[in-house]
Amino acid sequence: MNNTKCLFIVRKRIAVRRVLKDVLRDVLLAACLAMPYSIHAEEILLAVASNFAAPMGEIAERFEAQSGHEVNLAFGSSGRFYAQISNGAPFQLFFSADQEKPQALIAAGLAQADTLTTYAEGTLVLWSASLNVTGPEFLSSQSFTRLALANPALAPYGKAAVETLTALEMRAATETKWVQGENIAQAFQFVESGNAELGFVARSQVAAKPGAQSDDIEITGSGWIVPADLHTPIHQDAILLTHARDCTACHEFLGFMQTAEVRALIARYGYRTSGSIPDSTSE
Hints:
Elements: H1 3-34, E1 43-49, H2 53-67, E2 70-76, H3 78-86, E3 93-95, H4 100-107, E4 117-122, E5 124-128, E6 147-150, H5 156-167, H6 171-174, E7 178-181, H7 184-193, E8 198-202, E9 222-225, E10 234-240, H8 248-257, H9 260-268
Parallel strand pairs: 1-2, 1-3, 6-7, 6-8
Antiparallel strand pairs: 3-10, 4-10, 5-8, 5-9
């Protein structure tokens, strides 16, 4: 083989390597651009209203799997979280069970108004683990001695329960039987454990599991789904806290909440979601 031919072969091999390198670079670049979330993993901390514990657990798992970020969840009453955030608690995102507390945080300069979003509208259920609850008339029966509800001063679901009893003209007749939990999770525990025979809980706490019929009360017991016109709508707002305004993972999580995948998951737990919920500023 002469030198000219050898030189041609060497140059050809170099050219092929360059083409392969360029192709590999383009493939990797395309893969990176196709990724919906940041490749730089972060750890974020969310304060979440108790009624939303079950769906949020699933949402966080899916987000972690798709993004690589780590999500830490704290569950409790919206009122308690509001007080903690006002006193410097390190939460980055606040998922309230109402609209008032996020709005108050905006007014105090503690939350970013441009991130405010209504992520769900909750449904109230009068539920019993052991009795046959057929409707609101059950409240006038002598079949129960304790009626559980969340503290109306701290929890929007407790406020909705009191409004429902007032609308049914049953507040005075039942008030001596009230057993109040700090949040809706405690109210549910009172009924589930039998410490209260009856209680107002969130539909998400007794909602459909995968494959179940969404219009039914799906766990042991029976319940009456409270009509929405008996209380102030439970519009649940989420917001980014000001100290976390530069948190990339937080913004990504809020975006993830708006996806069709997540909206379907939320609806499965008995909530109404975005398209059918009035804007938070319309009230």
